[in-house]
Amino acid sequence: MNAVLKESNRFRTLFDRLQTRVHALALTSAEERADKIRRLLKATLEARPAILAAAHKELRVNETDVDAQLLMIKSEAEFITRNLAVWMAPQPVQGSLMTLGKKCYIRYEPKGVVLHLSTWNAPIAEAFVMAYGAIAAGCTFVLKPSELAPHSAQVLADICAKVLPEDELAVVNGGADVATELLQLPFNHIFYIGGHQVGRIVMRAAAEHFATVTLEMGGKNPVIVDASADLDEAGRKIAWGRVANAGQVCLAPDYALVHASIVDAFVAALARHMTAMYNADGRGFQRSPDLPRIVNRRHFDRIKALLDDALDKGAKLEFGGDTDADDLYIAPTILTSVTEDMRIMQEEIFGPILCVLPFNEREEAIATIRRRPKPLGAYIFAKDRAAIDWFMARTTSGSLVVNHNLIQSGTNPHLPFGGVNASGIGRVGGRATFLECSNARSVVEDQYPAGDPNIMFPPYSDKYKKMI
Ligand code: NAD
C-alpha cells in the first residue's frame, strides 16, 4: 500500500481498534456471540417504524416488503444462534496411515476484520445477514451501506451503535469515495453486494492484501418455459418475480425463453397476472400501493434507455411501457421480438421489464444462455420431468428453481446463496456466512509418547518405498 495513503486514511485508527479487538473476540463463546446477534435483532425489530419510513422514502415500498426483510433476518438470527455452538466446535476428521496415533481436526477461527460494502435494494437484510455471520465467527465488522439508500443507512448506523461498541461493529456511511478509502485498508475478508464493474474493483483491492472476498453480484437470469409448463402458474409466478420491488431484485428473471408454440398464451398469462396483482381495480399501475419506484433518476434513466433502445431496434411492446420520470415510475412491461444487438439483451435490466424470446429447439435456448456470463439464478418451468432434467444438466447458475422463482433466497438457511464467476463468488446465508468469515485451521496433535517416532526421520533407506 502507498505509505502516504496509509497515513492519511481517515479510517486507519478505527481499523486499528477493530483489529486489536479481534484477539479478544476470538476467545468468546458461542453463547456470547449469540447474545450479540439476538440483541442486534431485537434492536432492529424495535426500529421497525424507522425502517419502514426509510424504505418508503427510498423505494416507496410497503410494509410487506419491509416485513419480509425483517422475517428473513429473524429466521437467520434464530438459525445461527441455535447452531453456532456446533459450528464452532472443533470438527474431528478421519485419521490416515501417515497420521496414525495422532489427533486430526479442523478448528474454526475468526478471519479477523471484515468489511461489507452493501447495497440498497433490501438494505436491512443485506446488512445483517453478513453482520450476523461475522459476529458468529468472532470477527469485527465494518458495514458501509449504500449511499443510494441514505435513510436506511442512518437507521442501520443507529441500530448498530445502540447494541455494540464501534471497535466490534462500525457503520461508516458514505459513497464510492468512502468505499475506496476503506478498500485501502488490510481487511481480512470483504463482502460486496452490487454490480460486477465495482465487484472487479473490490476484488483487485482485496488482492493487494490477500483478503478473501465474497462477491454477491447479478446478471441476466434466464427463465425457461417448456411446452409442458402450466402456463397460468408460470405467468403468475414470473409476473410476481419480475415486478416485485419494481424489478430491483438480483434474482429476478430478466428474460424468458419460451417454447414457440406457447409464446402468445404465455404473454397473455403474464399480462393477466400483472394486471391482477398491480392493477386489479383498474385505476392504473402507477397507483398500486404494491408497486415500488426505481431507486433514483440515474437508474430510471438507465432502464428507460434500455427500453427505448429495444423499441428503436424493433422490439414489440406487448404490455406496459409507461414511464414517469418525475415519479421514478416504470410500468410492468413485456417485450417480444428482442434481438441480441439490443442493449436490453446485453445488460442486466434491474427493472420491471421482461423480454420474452421464443425457441423451437431446446438447444437454441441453451445457446442463448451460454452466450452470457453464468447467471446468479436460473428458472425452469415444466411439468415434464425429462425436460426439467435436460435443461438442468445443460445450464449452470448460482442457484436454480424449478416451477417457481425468487424463492431460493432467505427462505431456507440450509441452502447457501451466491453466484458463479461474474454473478458472484462465495456463499452466504446460514452456516455459509460463518464459514466465509472463518479460517478453517487444520490441526494435527501428536501424542506423548509419540505414535510413530521413526518413519519421518533419517536414515531413510527405503522406508517410504515399502509403503507405495
Ligand atoms: P450500489 O451502487 O449500491 O453499489 C454497491 C456498493 O458499492 C455501495 O456500497 C457503493 O458505495 C459501493 N461502490 C460504488 N462505487 C464504488 C467504487 N468505485 N469503488 C468501491 N465501491 C463502490 O449497487 P448497484 O451496483 O446499484 O447494485 C445493483 C447490483 O447489485 C445489481 O447488479 C444486482 O443484481 C446486484 N445485487 C446483487 C445481490 C446479491 O445478493 N447477489 C443483491 C442485491 C443486488
From TrEMBL:
Keyword vocabulary terms for this entry: NAD, Oxidoreductase
Pfam families (alphabetical): Aldedh (PF00171)
GO CC terms in record: cytoplasm
Chain coiled-coil ranges: none
Top-level taxon: Bacteria
GO molecular-function terms, A-Z: aldehyde dehydrogenase (NAD+) activity
Active site per UniProt: E216, C250
GO aspect biological process, one term: aldehyde metabolic process
Residue ranges constituting the Aldehyde dehydrogenase domain according to the UniProt record: 22-443
Family classification: Belongs to the aldehyde dehydrogenase family.
Name listed for the protein in its UniProt record: Aldehyde dehydrogenase
Highest classification ranks of the organism: Bacteria, Pseudomonadati, Pseudomonadota, Gammaproteobacteria, Nevskiales
